[in-house]
Amino acid sequence: MVSFWILLLAMGVYGVLHSVTASLRFKNQVRRLFGSGMERWYRLVYSLMGVVSFIPVLILFIILPDRILYSVPTPWSWFLLFVQMIGVLILLWSLLVIDVWAFLGLKQLSGDTQTEDSLTTAGPYRLVRHPLYTGSLLVIWFMPQMSLNLLAFNLGVTAYLVIGGYFEERKLVRQFGRVYEEYRRRTPMLIPWSWRRRQPE
Fold it and tell me: Nearest-CA neighbor of 58 among 22, 20, 18, 7?
């Protein structure tokens, strides 16, 4: 169980670091320090920092003692793999809609920040506000085999996506105002068939 709590703590540290650097306040502070010319580099540096800071979590996941909690036998495991494939397709579809090069920060190097300044509501974003999160959750929770370390990792990722999504939406409201508020009102966060009652027009 020590490994479980260490991994949860590591995911918590990663989530806080990633959320802070994604905030508009942090970005504005960086702009004040380095000037407006940093706009073209910010997304790429942010993406690279996200990858580098996640490496220690993956190392802990690999080296810490672990034990299997359950293994789903066939043919049920085939169903889980099928759901995981749906999650992967949702991830790929979402990245294609938002422009993967802009998502990574490579497109901004040419000075094109138009993608960052526009709200994407097409494709999977018409069904849920965070299809990247939806796809990720399908992939991690429908594993045919679950270990203690994987459970800790999945719980950490899920908490990060839910809490991070809350703060991301606060940023989007400040950025897009009533346009995003209307989009949020009519579009569920993660589950397309959300039962929540819509507000009256």
Answer: 7
Outline where DSSP puts E strands in the chain.
68-71, 145-147
d(CA 27, CA 20) in angstroms, rounded, equals 9
**What whole-number distance in Å separates Cα of residue 89 and Cα of residue 138?**
11
Structure-token pair, residue 140: 């991690």
Q: Look up residue 146 and give its DSSP letter.
A: E
At residue 183, the 3 state secondary structure works out as helix
Q: Extract the tokens encoding 22.
A: 């994604």
User: Rounded to a whole number, what is the distance in angstroms from the first to the last CA of the chain?
Assistant: 50
Mean pLDDT of 39-68: 87
Burial class (CB in 10 A: 0-12, 13-18, 19+), 18: middle
The token pair at 56 is 């220690």
The pLDDT tens digits of the residues spanning 159-184 come to 999 888 888 898 889 888 999 999 99
Examine the pLDDT at 115 and tell me if it is beyond 60: no
